[in-house]
Design brief:
Blueprint (H helix, E strand, L loop, with lengths): L2 H19 L8 E5 L5 H9 L4 E4 L2 H10 L8 E4 L8 H7 L2 E5 L2 H10 L7 E6 L16 H9 L4 E7 L8 H20 L12 E3 L6 H6 L4 E4 L1 H4 L6
The chain binds pyridoxal-5'-phosphate (PLP).
């Protein structure tokens, strides 16, 4: 068995264990393989072992991989999970299926305008800044209802839920605290009377990475984003 194949089955086992331990079904947790800094061939290998959902952080690198793997385009779901600069939004709108990192209304509006009409609506999550001060990305919880209301009126976007990147910590209780907070924010949105729930499918909590998927799953994650534990350590250029 290759290391990659080994890693993939180990991470699936971790997901299964964590889900079972809290009475959830592993089938309700989607595994996103974060392939940033790894090659299109690595993605192809992972695909050959059954992995279908991939996450990318950098626009140029991600789009290059999507194009290089054109032959698999209809079988792979591509998720953009990195910071978005306005001048690169078009490449994302044209090449990805999901975006997790919507952090301002202006960028949502650009995606809506730039999403090609022959493609289904772009599936989006709003990135929330839950561990305040330190990280600058993500919107503040108190701005959430307003941005979600605006996004839900955009025909080429489909709002699916929330995403967060908490400050890294080894402490499992602290990991759980951040994830719990995000879950509560999603529940609040699901119950909000100002949103049009006929049109929304607020079912996604994108949280948990290589080192904290257990805590994330315990707190209700529906999509874990795993890089290192699948592809190995990254070397940045
Ligand atoms: C890199 C990255 C991941 C994966 O992190 P690992 O610790 O390698 O699993 C997940 N989410 C985001 C937003 C990332 O940038």
């Amino acid at each position: 068995m290759s290391a990659l194949q080994n890693n993939l089955s180990a991470i699936k086992e971790r997901i299964h264990q964590a889900a079972t331990a809290c009475g959830r079904s592993a089938q309700d947790i989607k595994l996103l393989a974060v392939s940033k800094t790894f090659s299109a061939e690595d993605v192809r290998d992972a695909f050959s072992f059954g992995q279908k959902y991939f996450g990318e952080n950098y626009v140029q690198e991600g789009v290059a991989k999507v194009l290089e793997l054109k032959d698999l385009r209809s079988s792979i779901e591509w998720h953009f999970i990195g910071p978005i600069q306005s001048n690169k939004s078009k490449d994302v709108a044209e090449n990805f299926d999901w975006v997790h990192s919507i952090d301002r209304i202006k960028i949502a509006q650009r995606f809506n305008d730039q999403r090609p009409s022959h493609l289904p609506p772009l599936e989006v999550c709003v990135q929330v800044n839950i561990s305040d001060e330190m990280s600058k990305s993500g919107i503040q919880p108190d701005e959430l209802v307003d941005i979600c209301q605006k996004i839900s009126a955009m025909p080429h976007l489909r709002l699916r839920g929330l995403m967060s990147i908490p400050e890294p910590t080894e402490d499992v209780q602290n990991q759980k605290k951040s994830h719990h907070h995000l879950r509560e924010l999603l529940i609040k949105l699901q119950q909000s009377t100002v949103l049009d729930h006929q049109k929304l499918q607020l079912d996604t909590l994108s949280m948990g990475m290589s080192s904290d998927i257990e805590a994330a799953i315990t707190e209700g994650s529906t999509m874990v984003r795993v890089g290192t534990a699948i592809f190995g350590k990254r070397t940045y250029l």
